[in-house]
Predict the structure.
Amino acid sequence: MAHQSELIEKDILAYLKAQEEKSMLRFITCGSVDDGKSTLIGRLLWDSKMIFEDQLAALEADSKKVGTQGGAIDYALLLDGLQAEREQGITIDVAYRFFSTDKRKFIVADTPGHEQYTRNMVTGASTAGVAVILIDARKGVLTQTRRHSYLVSLVGIRHVVLAINKMDLVDYSASRFHAIREEYEAFAASLGFADITAIPISALQGDNVLERSGRTSWHAGPTLMEYLESVEVADEALAKPFRMPVQWVNRPTLDFRGFCGTIASGSIRPGDEIVVPSSGKCSIVSRIVTMDGDLDEAVAGQAVTLTLADEIDISRGDLLATPQARPEHVDQFAARVVWMHEEPLLPGRGYLLKAGAATVPAQISELKYKVNVNTLQHEPGKTLTLNEVGVCNLALGKALAFDPYTENRATGSFILVDRMTNATVGAGMIDFALRRATNIHWQNLTVNRSSHALLKNQKASVLWFTGLSGAGKSTIANLVERKLLSLGKHTFLLDGDNVRHGLNKDLGFTDADRVENIRRVAEVARLFADAGLIVLVSFISPFRSERQMARELIPAGEFFEIFVNTPLEVCEQRDPKGLYVKARAGQLKNFTGIDSLYEPPEHAEIVVDASQASAEELAMRIVDRILGVGEKGTAQSEWMWVDGI
């Protein structure tokens, strides 16, 4: 490196020990586009002598080639590593850098300023203790400044540096500095920051970055580095109650059963009592096992294996906690959600929620309101789009142990994952449990699903007909029901149009309403199947995610997806309701197949094409297949059947 401590030459072990004992501060830089975030961090790295010789040579060459300082050193190039960033002169991704001074070690995240990369900024802020919010002294407090300040408060950062940059371009004006500081402090008064420290700087010239500038003699506060080296960010995790998500159950031999994980908060000793919130069972810690031997105590941040005095049921995803301060354990809670995907959030759609090592099915049961992060006002809405923030109620498929985010960032945060693509679509911070969920329990009933089906002498099942409007779903489903009824079967048909006259009369045809439409119908179909019926469901049901959700509500082997794969041009020719004509003319919005997406099934049990055979013939074939009878009366070993494909 361009500079090394003299201890390295004199006593390498003493140098390493000094490095190990330094405290670590994680901080982020954020602000509007071109406020100088990358330049500031580059300046910190340069002035801290934390640049390797080859980096220095590359920086000098790149500054002449793509720099913005007329051939002089462009410090931003130390951070803007992506080719697209260098071409545009902006930060797109989050860049992490390590540097160190004699007093402290630092990990800094340079986060993007563009609104469309807000999700990246949230990612960088999630582990930081301090936020350095830059403001261009010429422009003052901007919309993106307000946006980032709200997001910083949202993820729990309480220490803020207001770095008013480019003071050299306003002649180091004290009045300009104080006007911006007062405007920002008035805006941020409701955000809950513990302290806001305003510092006038010029990242390019180095004023008040490491050393105090004579050009701002009117500034009595610290330089940026003085603040970063001295700010006290309490290690809150150590002071909080013990929490450890179980990442792995270790059973190398019959005589050893350990629970592995990284301690999220608090501390633990052998002899301490722990509780498993999912079961309420308690036990005593026998040993704290590590690769280097047993410990007398383990604290937040350490990866350990705990052995217990009792054999109690603990699995991956469980949370171990102290019985004196137990976490919440419910299947419904309210949370703030930052949406991070191009596909919008749709209330009622099934997602996977990952919190710690736990993964559970989840739905946004209600979007209570959206937060305008520019004005902090609450706004109504039915969905969230990319980078929007909303306050939501979530319903889980399984109870989850958690703490409110304001009490414990590690156990109060989660991500939402798309069930079909496995893409991360949202990040959330839990506010509180929905109390009424704790008063609702499954009631054990004497007469169950099997009893109902046995009385009817049939196997309960759901036949889910899907396809475009005009494909022939309702016609075929109606004929299938008639044939089943003639064979003495007990059935019920749920038709898309009929249900919208009653149960779903309040729903429209937006994507969010379509999701809720199918969610309700799937739940009704499950209830009818629980009554032992063969339930026929005839809905366009355009999205794979919702059809998969319906499938998962029904026991394995009792759900049959029937794809009426009639070509779009045939459906348009039929057009029994004149809907395609209106959709093509722009008179009917959100029409499936025209201006609204239809996702065809990929693994339907039965696929038929109503343009290749009559509805009567297809219905007969479907009945034969459903009842397990082949064309010659032989039992079928496979449910999958494709007609004309």
Notes: Residues 449-642 form a domain with the Rossmann fold fold (CATH 3.40.50.300). The chain has a mean pLDDT of 84.
